[in-house]
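wait is this the right file?? whatever heres the structure
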């Protein structure tokens, strides 16, 4: 059926969409619809390679939301691909404000730029279903069935059922077998009565030949086997479908629903192998970790650092914090392996293009919305990686006792772990005595030397000039107070041993401080 974009805007959810630009192109003929997973054309895996003339492109431009020049370049490339139009999701949330130059270029190139309403029921899958329904002249009965399937998938998500339940439901609804594979063709999950046939086909020369020649979509001659390659969250996945009755006319909707399941249950699906990688590191299983890392094309020797951040177990706040971290990591040009472990989000950063982990730490601190305790640590080689991981996670039990939300680097974490042992040793008495001397002096003289010792050691690393500048205190005053600390504690801060002792005292004060 031949339809135009103008007709699409008269049906379903898009009836209430806003046409931001390119009204001259509303009579463009539509041949299909596709989601643009990667809109940054400088990134490997751009779906533009697979666009066909007349397709409607759905995107949010999340990866180029702050780069107007890249947004303009995207529109120019889409015009070269002769797309029918662009549906821009989440305007006001992802792209906060659309630059006037984007509207101008779309008007000039006659590319309709459409913005659907930001409502709960408006999703990629819903819009795609409306368009494909019109293209395929679906009967009311078919459309009703698809709406019921989408509703059931959402219900399974709300009930927190595993993604396997949703895949099995989708397969049974259309009597097809489904398979989800990593790019290496390692199976993540499969369901249906003909899964064994799908596994056999993966080993055939026919499949391997088609895999080389058809980058994104593979079908056999009878169109029973259909394989689609997608780019999702920095990795490729293969989606497989087998129709026992021959060509499946509902394949478009099946794959749309399949991709929606991946979006909804991405933590369970995409992070399964990554979670296994991190667990193998924690267990010290180098052979397993190396095997998994190789399949994911991660060189453990190229790992530059790690981030551990505490969970609050409040869904919305945790999601906001994860979003902030992902933004910083992406801005720093890093690849990441992510998992949730105990009460901690764990990120392993690698191949960061000569970025130092300290730069990433500063980027995180720069974000004003950062309100969590976090460990940011450099890792040098696999030995350091395997030794530090278990300690980093265990260290959160110590950080919970500290009432200051901040980013802790590796040296601080190691000091906390050392203090754990020191506070159970004879040195505990010495530190308590030194703290008592400071407390008595402060009480008698109405001063605050104890607080100053903690801040000078832990916040400013004994940099008196930096402390004076940040705390708006004259440098001479800071020097005088530190001299007074030396005097009453009978230490010499020119001696490394005495500096270490004062640092341990500061840690002890902070760790034993009452709420």
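ok assuming it is, sequence goes like this
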């Amino acid at each position: 059926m031949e339809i135009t974009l103008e007709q699409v805007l008269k049906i379903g959810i898009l009836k209430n969409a806003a046409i931001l630009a390119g009204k001259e192109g509303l009579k463009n003929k539509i041949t299909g619809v596709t989601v643009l997973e990667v809109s940054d054309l400088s990134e490997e895996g751009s779906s533009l390679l697979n666009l066909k003339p007349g397709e409607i492109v759905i995107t949010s431009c999340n990866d180029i939301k702050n780069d107007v020049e890249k947004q303009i370049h995207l529109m120019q490339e889409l015009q070269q691909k002769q797309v029918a139009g662009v549906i821009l999701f989440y305007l006001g949330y992802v792209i906060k404000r659309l630059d006037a130059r984007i509207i101008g270029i779309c008007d000039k190139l006659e590319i309709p730029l459409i913005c659907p309403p930001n409502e709960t029921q408006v999703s990629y899958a819903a819009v795609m279903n409306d368009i494909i329904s019109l293209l395929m002249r679906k009967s009311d009965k078919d459309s009703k069935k698809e709406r019921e399937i989408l509703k059931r998938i959402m219900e399974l998500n709300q009930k927190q059922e595993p993604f396997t339940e949703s895949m099995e439901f989708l397969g049974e609804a259309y009597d097809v077998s489904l398979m989800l594979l990593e790019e290496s063709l390692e199976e993540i999950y499969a369901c249906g009565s003909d899964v064994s046939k799908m596994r056999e086909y993966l080993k055939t020369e026919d499949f391997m030949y088609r895999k080389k020649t058809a980058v994104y979509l593979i079908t056999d001659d009878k169109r029973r086997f259909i394989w689609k390659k997608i780019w999702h969250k920095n990795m490729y996945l293969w989606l497989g479908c087998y129709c026992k009755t021959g060509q499946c006319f509902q394949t478009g909707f099946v794959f749309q629903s399949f991709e929606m399941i991946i979006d909804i249950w991405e933590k369970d699906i995409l992070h399964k192998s990554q979670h296994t990688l991190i667990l193998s590191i924690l267990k010290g299983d180098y052979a397993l970790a190396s095997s998994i890392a190789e399949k994911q094309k991660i060189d453990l020797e190229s790992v530059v650092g790690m981030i551990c951040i505490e969970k609050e177990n409040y869904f919305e706040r945790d999601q906001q914090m994860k979003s902030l971290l992902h933004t910083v990591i992406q801005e720093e040009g890093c690849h990441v392996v992510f998992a949730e472990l105990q009460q901690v989000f764990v990120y392993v950063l690698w191949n960061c293009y000569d970025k130092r982990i300290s730069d990433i730490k500063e980027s995180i601190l720069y974000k004003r919305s950062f309100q969590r305790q976090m460990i940011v640590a450099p890792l040098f080689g696999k030995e350091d990686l395997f030794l530090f991981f278990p300690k980093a996670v265990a260290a959160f039990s110590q950080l919970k006792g500290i009432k200051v939300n901040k980013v802790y680097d590796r040296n601080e974490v190691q000091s906390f772990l050392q203090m754990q042992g020191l506070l159970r040793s004879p040195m505990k008495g010495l530190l308590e005595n030194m703290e008592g001397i400071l407390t008595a002096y402060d009480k008698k003289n109405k001063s605050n030397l104890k607080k100053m010792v903690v801040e000078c050691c832990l916040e400013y690393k004994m940099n008196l000039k930096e402390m004076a500048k940040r705390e708006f205190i004259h440098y001479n005053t800071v020097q005088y107070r530190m001299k007074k600390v030396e005097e009453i504690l009978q230490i010499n801060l020119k001696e490394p041993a005495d500096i270490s002792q004062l640092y341990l005292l500061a840690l002890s004060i902070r760790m034993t401080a009452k709420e």
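The first strand starts at residue 3 and ends at 4. so i think its the right one actually
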